[in-house]
Amino acid sequence: MRQLKHPGEGEEPRRIVRSLETGGSLRLRLSEGADLLTGLTDALIARGITDAGLQLLAGDFSAMQYLTGQPDASGQRVATYGAPTPLAGPVRLIGGNCILGRDAAGRPLLHCHAVVVDREGRIHGGHLPPKVCRLGPAGVTALVTAIGGAGFQVAYDAETNYDIFQPAGEQAA
């Protein structure tokens, strides 16, 4: 098994735990033409949901891009994102997961990973960037679990040398 060693000092224990409350669940559908991340974020914020876990259940894209990791040549990190991989539609969503939290400045931020099948039947997967994942005729359906009492916010992580989502204290959902 390959093991990766991050460049910074790790905290022990590595797990950060916060108590949270379930703020209820809902099924959300976005229609054709919407950008996945912008559409989901706007729909959740409009419902007063600021922190949530999402499961992408079904859908398709007319065009999209995704990112995967690659070794960081600079040595400052173990890995970094590679160049975007564009896919022309139709692209079928197999499934995905997202976290809604906040960026370092407190603005809403949705972080998503998904697995899709392109029009030739090849499987792809990775991180979905904003403003480049346009929904196709089937749109997308997501199961949303709102959370309260704690949330996620981007903060610097000394071990990975990245700004990453970390559990944050008391937040309203």
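(the above was protein one; protein two follows)
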Amino acid sequence: MNSLIFSSRKVVMDEGNHSAGISFILLGFSEYPHIQVPLFLVFLAIYTVSVMGNLGMIAIIRIDPKLHTPMYFFLSHLSFVDFCYSSVLTPKLLEILVVDIRTISYVGCMIQFFFGCTLVITEIFMLAVMAYDRFVAVCNPLIYTVAMSPKLCTLLVAGTYSWGGICSLTITYSLLELSFCGSNLIHHFGCEYSAIISASCSDPSFSQMTCFIISTLNEVCSLLIILGSYVFIVVTIIKMPSAGGLRKAFSTCASHLTAITIFHGTILLLYCVPNSKSSRLFIKVATVFYTVVIPMLNPLIYSLRNNDVKETVRKLINNKLFSQSM
């Protein structure tokens, strides 16, 4: 009996050691070789705009003292999360579009998944925190600066990062329990969850259950916070007597609602699609949208619809032009 247990443990250890030393082949969009270069140019342009937009938003918020408010504090962290998230996956996507060797190590794959998952969950709750901030600003404007104190804002942001890390660590640990053998092909441009599961040759039930529970809990909780906040906001807006107050309240929420709709809509659509051969292309396209395109759209949404940001940018440009003319 003891020898049987020892043999079983040895097999498990051998499988774990074997998995730790393997490499995955990222297929990406290799089934469309004729559009590899155009895709590279498009994604490079989007990534460049995303990096410049998010870092620019952070710089603008830090430079202008008028933007040192809770709303822009959360927005700067949203920009930071978007910058990090696009930088986790996009460089590898660009690499596999132009090189013949499209491999990623087992450790590198798990690290990429961990950080990607952490940042997605962090953004989910960062958007929820921003909804709560808008609720306080619209429904209780007189006590807004007191209610949203710097200490509370810092705790809320730290909580989103910490919760994202804890959830991601749990899901990543469930993936580490899987064994990989055979061709180790990943039908994706990165270490996306369903693609890793498909490459495994062991029973993924525990990991799938873990991911389902955590994903459902996070999505439901964040959406309840957002919906609850906006129900109170709508009720408050309806009761406003002046058109000017209504317009101002709507303008403070429009950008945030747009960002929420795009982000959560894409996430829900992606995870409602069954993991099958026929849906692989759709999954890859949807993943490109929320990992590459959305991080570019968020700073554009908040800058184009925000008068304070546009005014700060205008001042910076005018000051630059004035200094050059001198």
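Reviewer note on protein two: The chain has eleven helices and three strands.
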